[in-house]
Specification:
Length: 339
Amino acid sequence: MKSKVLLIYTGGTIGMMQDAKSGQLKPFDFKHLTEQIPELNKFDIDLSAVSFDKPIDSSDMQPAIWVELVKIIENNYNKVDGFVILHGSDTMSFTASALSFMLENLNKPVILTGSQLPIGTIRTDGKENLITAIEIAGAKVKDRPIISEVCIYFEYQLYRGNRTHKFNAEHFQAFQSANYPVLAEAGVYIKYHHSALRKPSVKKLKTYTKLNPNIAILKLFPGITSAAVNAILNIKNIKAVILETFGSGNASTEKWFIDAIQKAIDKGIIVFNVTQCNAGAVEQGKYSTSALLKNIGVISGGNITTEAAVTKLMFLLGNFNLIETEKQLQQDLRGEMTV
Ligand code: ASP
């Protein structure tokens, strides 16, 4: 049976073309996708495409658009074998992380990809990214998809989406997954690292469309003032604060700082400790500078990325009460952290 893949175009550089007259980049009409990439005709995959009416630069990404994407996936879930989402690379890790939480019991691939150069340019990385992402989304063994999770495919590597971080603004290799191995590498063959893949769920897909954006990130630096810290902790309606700490989860031991965090926790605000480092994990209690945080009820984010922490909090706060949110924050829900 020929695989069926649905391509969803949200925007980003990949779908842009240079206007011959003005030289400006503008989105091309996805109805003419195969004119741009004739290679797609050679695929043994049944490809269909939907495009957002108004393609966006991914810096304009919003939770409401994640909901839109979830609905498109849900409505087409039984019609296709896999999905490819074309998306700007800037916030791709946030979208991949959000979708991973919003789509529970996934047993089909949802592959996000994009490019650093538009598809119409000679040295574009977009063609390879798109073609291989489609191949991965349609790949099956014994009529079952090989991948059953939300991934990012970029520059010959397939990553677990909620483990990624955009770390380079100009290299074709723009993403890294420092705390989790790559899921597959594309060379002459696509080599899947089966032991790293999420197992397909036997349960029915469950989608979540409620997200609570009342969260903030408090990134620490030596010299941060109490005014800055308190401004964030006292934002109206704030439900959770991601505390971006040093190294393995360390922060200042100054009394005013610990008191401010303690006061926030006493008010019912979740404080989630995520390291500023790209790799490694928060280990509260390893140093005395993090033991204090542990003692006052700061929750450790382990080796979660900031992108996954932001979207996990939005997802949990949107769907569960405070106690349940605190409990699930410490659990690995979609392969986003090593517990
Ligand atoms: N600014 C663009 C975006 O994220 C960059 C890209 O497409 O990679 O939409």
